[in-house]
Amino acid sequence: MSVEQALVGAPDGEGPKAATRHVSRSVTLTIGCVLVGVIVLVAVVSLFWLPFAPEDTSGGRLMPPGAPHLLGTDKLGRDLLTQLMIGARIALAAGAGSVVLGGAIGIVAGLAAGFATRWLDDVVSALLDILIAFPTLLLAMLVAATQAASLTSAIVAIGLAMSAIVARLTRVLVKRVLAHDFITAARTSGTSWPRVVLEHVVPNIWPTVSVNLALQFGLAVLAEASLSYLGLGAPPPNASWGRMLQEAQASVFIAPVGVIAPGVLIVVLVIGVNLVADGFRDVADPTRRRRR
Amino acid sequence: MSLLEVAGLGVRSADGRDLISDLSFTVDAGTRFGLIGESGSGKSLTALAIMGLLPPGMTASGSVTLDVPGRGRTEIVGAGERLLNRLRGRTTSVVFQEPLTALDPLMRIGHQVAEPLRRAQGLRGRALKTAVTAALEEVRLAEPDRIARAYPHEISGGQRQRVAIAMALACRPALLIADEPTTALDVTVQAEILALLDGLVSAHSMALLFIGHDLAVVSGITDHVLILKDGKAVESGAVLDVVNAPRHPYARELVGSARELDAALDRLGEGERS
Q1: What residue intervals traverse the membrane (chain A) (predicted)?
Q2: Which residue in A213, B69, B199, B216 is a FRET match for A19, CA 20 to 30 A apart?
C-alpha cells in the first residue's frame, strides 16, 4: 500500500456512503445558518429601523394582518411585527448571554474538577449533580424573586443552571483526555501543566464542548421564552416572544397570528441553532473532517 | 560512572499494595538495558518512576538517580516538579507502546514535533520548520513536509511510531526509554522500527532502556537484561548469560517458550520444503 493510500484510506473511509454523509452534514449546517441568520438579520435591523414605535398603540386593538400593520396588532394596539423584531433581539441576547456566562463558569469549573482527584473529585461531582437536579425554572424564579424580573436576571439564572451542565461535561472530557498517553508523552518531554492544559486538554475537549454550548444556546432561548411567559423575563416595553405568547393566548381564536408568529419564530431559532450545532461538529473536529 | 542508577526502588499503590519492590539496576552511558516481564509485572511503572511521572496516588520509595550534565547526580524520587520538568526530554525521554494515543489527535504532526524543539533549542520560525523536517527525515519518513501537515489519524501506525520517536529524540536525551515500542505494530513494521531505534541510539550514542515482554525482541536490541515478575527482579545479567543459562524458574520458562516458538517455526518451514 502506498503512503498516499494509507493516508486517504483512514478509518472514516472513502466510498459513496461517507460522501453522502458528508454532504448531508454540510446541508444541515447551511440550513441552520440560514435560519439563525434570518433571526440575526431581523435583530440587527430592529436596532436601526422598526415599522412602528414600540409603544405606538394608535393602530387599534387586535387588528388582523394588512396595511399598515403587516401582521396586525396586539390587544393593546401595538404593531405585532415591531414587537417580533424586538423579540428577536431579546431572544438572541438571552441565548448569547447565558451561553457566555454558563460557558465561562462551566468550562473553568469543569477543568478544575477534571484535575481534582479522590475526595475533592467526589465532592465536586456530587455538587454538580445537585445543581443539575435543580430545575432551571425554579432557580430562575429564585433569582427573579430576589432581584427584580429583568432580562439580566433571566440570563444569570439560565447561565448558572447551564454552567453546571457544561462543568459536568467538561469534567468528564478532561478526565478522558488526561488518561491518554499523549498527555504523559507531553509531560515526559518536559511540558509544564499550564501548557499541557492550553495545548492539549482544551483543544481536545473544545469540539465536544462547543457543540454542547451551541445546543445550550437553543435551550437558553426556550428557557428565556418560558421565563417571560411566566412573567419572570424582560419586563415591558421589551417584547419577548414568550411574553407575547402569554399575552396573546386569551385572544387566540380572534387573532391567531399573535400566537402563531412568536411561536414559529421560537421554533425557527431553536431548530436553526440545533442544526448549526450538529453541522458544526464536523468542522470543529479534524478527526471527523475529511482531508482536503 | 553510570547514567541511571535505580537502587531499592519500590512503588506502592494508593490502597497500599506493593507494585514494585526493591528493584535495583544501573544503566551506563551509551549502553542498552532491557526490562522484560509480562503485563502487570511493573515494567511501565518503572519507566514512569524514572521520569517522576507516577499516576496520582502512587508513591515511590528508594532511589533513582540520574547523571545530569552540569548538575551531577540528581535524585528523582521526591524531586520537585520544576526540576523534573527541566530533566524530562533533555536527560530522559520516552517512546510509548501505543503510537495512536501517544500523539495528540487534534494537533498536526509538525506542530507536535516542533513543541519539544521549540522549548529545548529555542528555535523559531523558519529554523524551527527546517528542524522539524530534519527530525522527520531522521526517522526515515518519506515526504516529511506532507507528514508534518497531517493529523495522527491520517498516517499509518508505523509512521506514527516514527513520529513518536522523532519527538522523543528532539531534545537529544542521554537516556531513551522505549516502553514496548513495537508491541502495537505489525511484525514487519516491528522489525523496521527496531532497526531504526538501533541505528539512532548508536548514531547519537544514547543509552537505551528497552522495555518489553518478548524475550526475543528485547535480547535482540540490548546487552543487559533484567527479568521482572510481580514487581520483583527475578534474574538479571548479560543477555547471553541469561539466554544460555537462566537460573530462576520463571526465566527458564521464558527462555524455554521462546525456544519452543523458534523450533515450531523451524518445523513449519521444513514441512513446507518437503
Answers
A1: 27-50, 90-116, 123-145, 151-170, 213-232, 252-280
A2: A213
Tell whether omega for the bond before A237 is within 30 degrees of 0, i.e. cis: yes
pLDDT in tens, B121-172: 777 888 888 889 999 998 888 888 899 999 998 898 889 999 999 988 888 8
Interhelix angle A118-133/A80-115, rounded to 10 degrees, is 160
Q: Model confidence over B217-266: pLDDT tens digits? A: 888 889 899 998 888 888 888 888 888 888 888 888 888 888 888 888 88
Give dist(CA B43, CA B50) in Å, integer: 11
Kindly compute the dihedral angle of the four CA atoms of residues B90, B94, B99, B100, in this order, to the nearest 10 degrees: -70
**pLDDT > 90? residue A28:** no
- Determine which helix (DSSP H) or strand (DSSP E) holds B189, and give its type and residue range: helix B187-203
Q: Do B104 and A203 touch (CB under 8 A)?
A: yes
The amino acid sitting at A177 is V
Total count of domains within chain A: 1
* CATH code assigned at B124: 3.40.50.300
Q: Touching check for B148 and chain A: CB below 8 Å? A: no
| CA-wise closest residue to B52 among B1, B122, B4 | B4
B106 vs A3, A190, A204: nearest CB: A204
Does A24 reside within a domain? yes
Owning domain of residue A220: 16-47+73-284
Of the candidates A215, A201, A130, which has an alpha carbon nearest to the alpha carbon of residue A172? A201
- Return the residue matching grid coordinates 472514516: A12
Structural domain for B203, as ranges: 2-273
- The pLDDT tens digits of the residues spanning A90-123 come to 999 999 999 999 999 999 999 988 888 778 888 8
Q: Which residue has the cell 507536535?
A: B112
Facing A190 at nearest CB: one of B86, B97, B143: B86
Please tell me if residue B102 touches chain A, with a CB cutoff of 8 Å: yes
Query: What number of other Cβ atoms are within 10 A of residue B137's Cβ?
Result: 15
Chain A partners within 8 Å of B97 (Cβ): 181
**A interface test, pick of B13, B119, B154 with most A CB neighbours within 10 Å:** B154
Question: What's the residue count for chain A?
Answer: 292
